[in-house]
Specification:
17 helices; alpha/beta; Histidine-containing Protein, Chain: A; hypothetical protein tt1634; elongated; six-stranded mixed beta sheet
């Protein structure tokens, strides 16, 4: 009987325990379900449906693949706002990112008179050394801001070539902005004059790298033109500009269109400049050209706000008056109009007057002959003295006849014609009572325009003159310059006949080498716009360091020899390469003889910092490509000391 209560008590405890376990399990499952539902709901609302939520008791597990580290962190943080953050177990993985695309490398260089700024991203393999080296050569105390960074990505195929060209352009252009990409170089610059702009373009266009697009935008300031003059003529030879100026590009286009409508053919040019007397210049000029076209022949001349319409001989008075009246009404108020209707000279009066004529003939060598009639007394002698002053007393041949019945202003017209003739390479100036005729050749493409403005200013707008001036490119000091390749080829032709040879162990220019330098010195003045390198080379006999020093000293000797022959050497550099660039075998005497040489080669896409093995001027040098790793020795401070060391070592 005693055991029954004990068993009942134990049974009650077991039953209570079982109920507690069941209740705890039920409560745990309920909590898990509610935690999952709460976390799922808030993650879905936040656009994170990719998260898989699970629970194990009090712990909440987050699984799935996040698109980024930030998304994974945001999911865990969001879940922590619903349940205790200590209960959240973050098992989210981050999606594997694809390989990062390489950046587009670029460099922007801005060079002004105040300093140099450079910014960009370049490959780590090439680094910033080529840029800093190029800037150091021209900095000369200027402030330099270098913000170039590097990135460890493969070097694009044409990057080094494009960079070298861009840095060379920056060095050549004092006021410029150069942008370099691997496949494109953009150059913007301001030249001080049209001539300088032509030289810049010729230099940069002659050495453009292959495989790289080059965009050149070099502008020159608009010239100040005074007087602001334009002259348009229609005669038996057709319609043409003798000089043309405009104040804007739009005005130029309108004027050229009016000239074309009046019958002018061929390429027409009109200088855009400063100094216009009125913003209505194009209105006045187009009206004047249209009026002249209505007459059919003659000349319309503008000098600032003065307009002169010169009709052709034989024009009817009524027709002339009608055109003058219509043009006067069409011109803007600021312009004043003068009409000139030449009077026909009868054959009888012309015969009685005699051949009043003065002829000046200028030869290409500079000799000038003056024949014909001049006024008597001091006035005629002043014309002769003026001619000698222009052309030189020793090269002026004067045989004129002094007369007293010459037309008024003969001496003034004669001196103006002589001064115009002096601006030609060769030609004739013929002065007659009714006109002045200038014929000849020139190397100035703007000569006709310049001479027209000059004669209009000296003789007056109503004065009749005729210009038959021909531009010859061979006489143009800029256009006739040889190309960089032609310059190198000229020097190579001289060296192909006879090499520059030094005595053994010597760096002195001997008599034979001096004769070759004399011939090279005669070629180089026309090549001052070309950067060339004087390269010194040796054979492999002797120590490598000795050969480097010897080749450098000999290259310097050639440079100094040219300088002693009055050659400007600012475009030349001397560099020694020792035995590193053989063009023949060093195993034979004949091969060694070929390797001991001095070369002139074009500096084009060479690395500006000075690595000769990357010189891309293929074919410009007589030798082959440099061996990898070959570097030139620095130029010695003293050529004399270097020569002494070389002699001792040899």
């Amino acid at each position: 009987m005693i055991r029954s209560p004990l068993l009942l008590t134990l049974g009650a405890f077991v039953l209570a325990g079982a109920l507690a376990v069941v209740t705890a399990g039920f409560l745990a499952l309920t909590m898990e379900r509610r935690s999952i539902e709460a976390v799922d709901t808030i993650l879905d609302a936040g656009g994170m449906a990719w998260v898989e939520v699970d629970a194990d008791g009090l712990r909440v597990f987050l699984d799935g693949t996040a698109p980024s580290e930030a998304a994974a962190f945001r999911a865990a943080s969001t879940a922590g706002t619903v349940v205790d953050a200590d209960r959240v177990v973050n098992r989210i993985e981050v999606a594997r990112r694809e390989a990062v695309a390489p950046p587009r490398f670029s460099v922007d260089v801005l060079r002004t008179t105040d300093g140099i700024q450079v910014i960009g991203l370049v490959p780590a393999a090439t680094g910033v050394e080529p840029i800093t080296g190029a800037i150091a050569e021209i900095a000369n105390g200027l402030e330099v801001a270098n913000l170039v960074e590097t990135a460890d990505f493969p070097v694009p195929a044409t990057w080094e070539t494009a960079l070298a060209y861009g840095l060379r352009a920056m060095q050549a252009l004092p006021r410029s902005k150069v942008t370099v990409y691997a496949d494109r170089v953009e150059v913007q610059a301001i030249a001080e004059s049209a001539e300088q702009r032509t030289r810049f373009l010729q230099t940069l266009q002659g050495n453009q790298p292959s495989g790289v697009e080059v965009v050149l935008d070099i502008s020159a300031p608009r010239p100040v033109i005074t007087p602001f003059a334009l002259r348009f003529a229609i005669d038996a030879g057709g319609a043409r500009f003798e000089t043309c100026v405009a104040d804007t590009v739009a005005a130029r286009d309108r004027i050229l269109a009016a000239a074309t409508a009046a019958g002018a053919a061929g390429p027409l040019t009109c200088v855009v400049g400063l100094g216009v007397p009125s913003p209505q210049w194009a209105d006045a000029v187009t009206a004047g050209i249209g009026a002249l076209a209505g007459l059919g022949a003659g000349t319309i001349a503008f000098s600032d706000a003065d307009v002169t319409l010169i009709a052709a001989e034989g024009t009817g008075q009524d027709e002339f008056d009608r055109v003058i009246g219509e043009l006067a009404a069409a011109l803007p108020d600021v312009f004043s109009l003068e009409g000139v209707l030449p009077q026909t000279v009868s054959e009888t009066s012309a015969a009685s007057a005699g051949p009043a004529r003065l002829i000046a003939t200028l030869e290409s060598g500079g000799r000038m002959q003056l024949r014909g009639r001049l006024p008597e007394g001091p006035v005629g002698r002043s014309v002769e003295a003026f001619a000698r002053a222009l052309f030189g007393g020793q090269t002026t041949d004067i045989a004129t006849r002094p007369v007293s019945d010459l037309p008024e202003g003969w001496a003034v017209r004669a001196m103006a014609g002589l001064e115009a003739l002096s601006q030609l390479n060769d030609g004739t100036m013929t002065l007659e009572p009714e006109t002045l005729i200038l014929r000849g050749n020139t190397g100035n493409p703007e000569a006709v325009s310049d001479l027209t403005r000059f004669l209009s200013a000296e003789l007056g707008q109503a004065a009749a003159f005729e210009l038959q001036v021909t531009y010859l490119e061979a006489l143009d000091p800029i256009a006739s310059l040889p190309s960089p390749e032609e310059c190198v080829e000229r020097v190579r032709e001289i060296q192909a006949e006879t090499k520059i040879i030094f005595d053994p162990g010597s760096v002195e220019i001997n008599e034979a080498a001096g004769e070759i330098l004399d011939r090279i010195a005669a070629v180089l003045p026309d090549c001052r716009h070309v950067r060339m390198e004087i390269s010194g080379h040796t054979d492999s006999q002797g120590r490598e360091e000795m050969n480097l020093n010897l080749s450098q000293s000999r290259a310097d000797a050639v440079l100094n020899g040219l300088l002693a022959r009055n050659v400007l050497v600012s475009n030349l550099t001397a560099q020694g390469y020792g035995e590193s660039q053989p063009i023949a075998s060093n195993e034979t005497e004949e091969g060694r003889e070929q390797n001991r040489r001095i070369e002139f080669r074009l500096l084009t896409e060479a690395t500006v910092g000075g690595d000769p093995e990357e010189d891309l001027a293929e074919g410009a040098a007589e030798g082959g490509a440099a061996e990898p790793g070959a570097r030139p020795t620095p130029r010695p401070d003293s050529v004399v000391e270097a020569a002494a060391r070389a002699a001792e070592e040899e």
